[in-house]
Amino acid sequence: MNIAELAEAVLELEDDKAIAMVKQSIEEGMNAREVLENGVLAGLKEIGKRFQNKEYFLAELTMGADLVDQCMAILEPHLPVAEGPKRGVVVIGAVQGDLHSIGYGLVQKQLELAGYEVHEVGINCPSMKFIDKAKEVNADIIGLSAFLVTTIPYCDEVINYLKDMGTRDKYKVIIGGTECNHEVAAAMGADGFAPDASEAVKLCDKLLGHA
Asked: 82-112: b or e for each residue (b if 16 or more CB lie within 10 Å)?
């Protein structure tokens, strides 16, 4: 089974082919983490790029996310369990108005592989949903995904709610998404911005003193 071909099948939304290839990789005893990162998630990342370039739209994003979920269900039992104590607890999701999980889905999987406990709150989430979940699971970090210019203000809203509640210092707040950058993060008082999943893991490690 060729991992590059798997990534291409995910990118082209060829469900039957991609799922068959993932099953084949398990049968052949391939490294499940490599298959996930270099095949499934690599294809998902390219789907995100096509969306940014307006070659794919919301329908394709949704199809891609569903395909990755199916592949993940096959790979999950074969993925290595992170050794040692958990590195931290993260609540992650897409802010209100953002209707897909492509960006934070990549981050979630990479954080879990790195040893973080991650709680997903879904898409189109009201600001208080992040905060309520963070309180419930005693989170260290709140991760906000905002792919659209129109939804970035909801990241700011989460931070302002935390300030109003007197709990801003309890959580690190990080943001990500196509229209986000370091300047946007600094302007709203977020603790950091990550342009992709691997950088998000590094950012979380840095914020929690693991780097």
From this structure: eeeeebbbbbbbbbbbbebbbbbbbbbbbbb
Q: Which of 164, 211, 174 is nearest to 196 (CA)?
A: 174
Instruction: Provide DSSP, 67-126.
Output: HHHHHHHHHGGGSPPPPSS---EEEEEEETT----HHHHHHHHHHHHTT-EEEEEEEEE-
pLDDT digits (tens, 9 = 90+) for 196-208: 888 999 999 999 9
Burial class (CB in 10 A: 0-12, 13-18, 19+), 129: middle
Length of the chain: 211
pLDDT tens column, 6-52: 999 999 999 999 999 999 999 999 999 899 989 998 998 898 889 87
Q: Which of 110, 86, 97, 88 is nearest to 158 (CA)?
A: 97
Enter the pTM of the model: 0.82
pLDDT tens column, 146-189: 988 899 999 999 999 999 999 999 999 999 987 899 999 999 99
CB 163 within 8 A of CB 132: no
In angstroms, the first-to-last Cα distance of the chain is 35
